[in-house]
User: What shape does this take?
Amino acid sequence: MDTNLEQSANSFEVFYKKHQPSLVHFATYLTHSSSDAVEIVNDVFVTIWYKRDKLQIDESLKSYLFTAVKNRCFNFNRQKKIETLSIFPDDAQSSFTADGHLLEKEQALKLARIMTLLPPKCRQIFAMSRIDELSYGQIGALLDISTKTVEAQITKALKICRENLKLK
Assistant: This one.
């Protein structure tokens, strides 16, 4: 190994050991990930080592390092954001929730409780409309009542539902 290169490698190692911890701390602050921060800082040092003969640094080397690390962190965060957006395109979010099953049960219990508050005929019409998904005309024909009566009973049921949902 060339003595000049060996001497250069030794001074680079000393420089690396001196500045790496503070740069990693800075990068961790910017990326919120210590493992990504170490990788970014090491990439900056490797780039500097390979370009050591071509680099012209007008400012202090320490300032140059912090600027390079900051820029790499911003690029990393931008790329990470793009990857996240490609997983959830068009701001689509997963409908999965850990407590989804419990919420469904809770809603079913609320609905059952509210249904008990409805008068019997109103409850029957509301169930036919909302649960059995029958049209007002079909309900009227089955129960031998007018569609206006069906509409009035649905309106009454919805009013009771709204009032009881506001309370809880």
